[in-house]
Amino acid sequence: MSSKSRFKSGSLEPSEEATTFLRNMHHFNRGIARRLTPIIENEHGIDLRLYFILKYIEKGAIHPSAISQATHLPNSVVTRHIDQLVERGMLQRSLDPDDSRRIRLIVTDEGKRIAHDADVSLSRIVEVQLERIPADRRQIFLSVLADLAGEIES
């Protein structure tokens, strides 16, 4: 960690804290995406957006509207991504047996394999980054990050 990125609690005014937080989160998100995108595309043939859609479906978001809600993407964008996953044999569409007006999404064996392999690749890279943080601070960091993400989502 560079000293430039260190933040000492209480050393900034509240508005500076917010600006520092937002700037660091933006740089963090862009940096992680820049690092992970070429690996997932080259090794697994999908981009991060398709990967996350597969993961949302695996976790139970089996309708396009649920994916749109979970990802905060417009329905038209989610439909385009679903079309790509169907074309690549990673997803199947079927009528929902509980409501024939709805489409249900099912991850195929190929989709499960690609998602699993991508999990392994991404975990390997992220673990290297997390190991740069001392173990005691890493657990605090992950806990605080989960708390913040939960607050933002609710």
Q: Strand-residue fraction?
A: 5-15%
Report how far apart the termini are: 31 Å
Coarse shape = globular
Strand order of the largest sheet: 1-2
The structural domain count equals: 1
Named CATH topology: Arc Repressor Mutant, subunit A
Structural class: mainly alpha
Concise synopsis of the structure shown:
This protein has a single domain, classed as Arc Repressor Mutant, subunit A.
Could you characterize what this model shows?
The protein is mostly helical and 154 residues long. It has one domain (18-153): Winged helix-like DNA-binding domain superfamily/Winged helix DNA-binding domain (Arc Repressor Mutant, subunit A), CATH 1.10.10. The chain contains six helices and two strands. It has a two-stranded antiparallel ribbon with strand order 1-2. A hairpin with a 2-residue loop joins strand 1 (91-96) and strand 2. Helix 1 packs across helix 5 (109-130) and helix 2 crosses helix 5 (109-130). Residues 1-5 have low confidence and may be disordered.
